[in-house]
């Protein structure tokens, strides 16, 4: 082999390896743009008092490389925020028109729409992946994110109340299970691209993208998922035929733990704490950010729960359903983990909760 031919062969090999390495980089990202296994965020509500400097764009952040909440260095509406950094991969994939990358964006509150799609699940999220890996972002923010061609932005409707979300990086072999969970959640998909290369492995996602799914949904379905670095998660998905509170009737009893729940407490539309079953569900009434800073659940659009202190099983779940009578008729889900750093972070937010009557 001549020196010239050898150099050409090595160059092609390098480009091939670079392409493989680049293909594996779809991942949740931190504020520095570095790949992380998972992250969770808590967007803080806009404070109404004149003395407060909080704009409704600040957030708390925790990822797989840290041990507890830290205040964001960026505002959530900037491209350097944790959401902006993560979604940048979506815009790059969209601009490149790469047939090896797929995405699915869903929200019952579509951007720039004044109505909510009650035909679909009360569920909000985004998936971006290739045949190596990708991420699933589950959140509570209405009208978010914009369609890919418009680039990153954060909606004004997401400022007033608190919001939560979790991003998890998954290998491609997990997407078949995610595919089945999304069918049950019945998401309102408003932007998507599922190249043909994925259609053989993923049955329901291409149909959800085309709004042509005719598959029969089970009333509920539980899936075990594993992140790229081996963190285990349970995903609870309920359809609109499971006519009950997902927390009391299913999650608490399945996880065998008393739960403290934080969901949007719209006055006159909340469910009371429930102690009628072996494992109880209590409504959190106030969130503590620091020693002198807290806010009421009425200012919070977040959806999460954590095991009561002192219980054996320490779980934390993040999702997109509220504890209200109307939500029993909506589909949606929660993803749960026993990660101790996530548990401790959310447990420290609980200022007080409502006991059963």
Automatic annotation (TrEMBL):
* Alphabetized UniProt keyword annotations: Endonuclease, Glycoprotein, Hydrolase, Lysosome, Nuclease, Signal
Q: What is its main location?
A: other
Q: What is its EC number?
A: 3.1.22.1
* Sections of the chain in a coiled coil: none
Under the heading Pfam families, the entry gives: DNase_II (PF03265)
Q: What are the GO BP annotations of this UniProt entry?
A: apoptotic DNA fragmentation
Supply the InterPro entries for this chain.
DNase_II
Domain of life, per the record?
Answer: Eukaryota
What subcellular compartments does it reside in? Lysosome
What does the record give under GO molecular function? deoxyribonuclease II activity
Q: Which reaction does it catalyse?
A: Endonucleolytic cleavage to nucleoside 3'-phosphates and 3'-phosphooligonucleotide end-products
GO CC annotation terms, alphabetical: lysosome
Which residues are the signal sequence here? 1-23
| Family as reported in the entry's similarity comment | Belongs to the DNase II family.
The free-text function statement in the UniProt record for this protein reads: Hydrolyzes DNA under acidic conditions. Does not require divalent cations for activity. Participates in the degradation of nuclear DNA during lens cell differentiation.
Q: What is this protein called?
A: Deoxyribonuclease-2-beta
